[in-house]
Amino acid sequence: METMKQHWTNRTGFIMAAAGSAVGLGNVWKLPYVVGHHGGGLFIAFYLISVVLFALPALVAEILVGRATGAPPIQAFGMLSQRTSWRWVGALGVVAGAIILSFYSVVGGWTIFYSALGAFATLGITLPGGLPAHASAETLSNTFNHFLGNPGLNILFHGIFMLATILVVRKGISGGIERVARVLMTILVGIVLALAIYASTLPGAQEAWNFMWSPKASDFSSEALLEAVGHSFFSLSVGMGAMLTYGSYLGKEHSIAGTSVIVAIFDTLVALLASFTIFAIGFSSHLAPGQGPGLVFITIPLGLHVLPLGSLMTFLFFTLLFCAALTSAISLLEVVVASFVQVTGMNRSAASVWIGLGIFSLGLPSAVSGSTMFFGQGMSKWIGMTWFDLMDKIGSSWLLPLGALGTLVYAGWAVSRKTKEKEILGDGSIPGFYSAWNVLTRFVAPIGIALVFLQLSGLVRLV
Ligand code: TRP
After folding, report:
1. Cα 239 to averaged position of ligand 1 atoms, centre (Å)
2. Cα(95) to centroid(ligand 1), Å
3. Which residues touch 218 (CB under 8 Å, ≥6 apart)?
């Protein structure tokens, strides 16, 4: 069997694919809008603390379990311990992956739509509901809300995004995923940096900086705390087995510690730079940061169209954001497909198509959540959130922290010391890393995550 197993071509290939999974809509679309929604710096502080104390140790744990077993999540959790009930942690991840991808793909569709709007504007074609030159913040916000309220368009672009994801996953690991990730990541980093530099010259730059780095105690809520913790997992793609699956293709000679730290730093920097850019543009036009999910789709055209070649840059930005979303979506679908292929023996190609179609269907109510239909306004009146919001909450705030907790306890307590030492120390780790990781994984992170859940349930009052 060993000869049939796929592998990354080298360490850079793995880092690129892992970073490709981590960097996505979470960094550019989600973090800025949830930070804006929760009032600013306190959310960022919780998120950063959670990246270091909870998400990074969980990332190491996932890659370790993946590489030690060489199996997809459900099997992997049954292989390193006598107790096969650990497999439920893997199964939970597969469910989380399907739920997250179902709404992620809808937002992925928005990036395709906006890239098309940018292309039309570049060609000088102004469509009704398009991106007119020199539009005000208000006009751009109307454009977004108009689009959001159109179920047909949302379903169409959700479908196109899902199709693209299926096509890459069908091709398998280094043939599809790695090649796509390599090229795109490099261009994306360049663009994000250039935009952040441009944003720092805007009049709103100082206000954006203060907004991000001045935590206000009055912004505290248990929901915000859980959401920030959930987002740290979401952003690093941990808690549902995606990194475990990628780790299962990682060669024994590459350092898990070094790789994880690089991916975590890179992902966090991109998230902070993108947030700064978006807030700086927003504040420069007196646009409140609490715009909701449309924030990036309003601020980027707003900030760019005053520049020479602004429409072209808008087109490029959303095309790249689409690519970043695609390399993330691939990792979500990959987990579900890889587990399914292992369990049923169905071939990868057919499994990719069928599971992709299933997730597309699960995403339909999310695609119409911006409209007056039941899953949008109806549910909003009924339970206070749309279907889209509900999927995000269940997937990102509940299942990911739960999955990460399971992974940490598994790696910390059920996996033998011998296996862990072999995996982490055997590949030339960073000095002191193993002991620090051990303490975080066995005690700090599980207790911390459990406390966050208890705080939310009202059983414990930390603050
Ligand atoms: N990390 C990606 C982002 O920030 C999203 C993502 C990809 C993800 N794979 C994942 C989230 C696995 C959770 C689990 O956009």
Report:
1. 9
2. 14
3. 39
* Angstrom distance (rounded) from CA 312 to CA 201: 20
Smallest CA-to-CA distance from 455 within 413, 401, 407 is with 401
Q: How confident is the model at residue 306 (pLDDT cuts 50, 70, 90)?
A: confident
Rounded to the nearest 10°, the torsion over CA 146, 397, 325, 205 is: 70
Report the pLDDT value the prediction gives residue 28, as an integer from 0 to 100: 96
Report the alpha-carbon distance of residue 95 to residue 221 in Å, rounded.
28
Residue with token string 């292309």 = 119
pLDDT of residue 5: 53
Which residues approach ligand 1 with their CB closer than 6 A?
21-22, 24-27, 100, 234-235, 237, 239-240, 242, 328, 331-332, 400
> pLDDT of 188-229, one tens digit each?
888 889 999 999 999 999 999 999 999 999 999 999 999 999
Tokens 């449309």 sit at which residue? 294
Three-state DSSP state, 426: coil
**Residue 104 C-beta-side C-alpha neighbours within 13 Å:** 33
Phi, psi (deg, nearest 5) at residue 248: -70, -15
Average pLDDT, the chain: 91
Query: What would the pLDDT profile of 24-77 be if each residue is shown by its tens digit?
Result: 999 999 999 999 999 999 999 999 999 999 999 999 999 999 999 999 899 999
Q: How confident is the model at residue 392 (pLDDT cuts 50, 70, 90)?
A: very high
Tell me the DSSP string of 155-199.
HHHHHHHHHHHHHHHHT-IIIIIIHHHHHHHHHHHHHHHHHHHHH
Q: Which residues contact 10 (CB under 8 A, 6 or more apart)?
A: 251
> Residue 324 CA: which ligand 1 atom is closest?
15
Measured between alpha carbons, how far is residue 272 from residues 104, 147, 174, 258, 429 in Å?
20, 28, 30, 21, 27
pLDDT for res 176:
59
Which range among 55-59, 245-249, 357-361 shows the weakest confidence by mean pLDDT? 245-249
Amino acid, res. 12: T
DSSP letter at 385 equals S
> How many A from CA of 236 to the centre of ligand 1?
6
Q: How far apart are CA 66 and CA 18, in angstroms?
A: 13
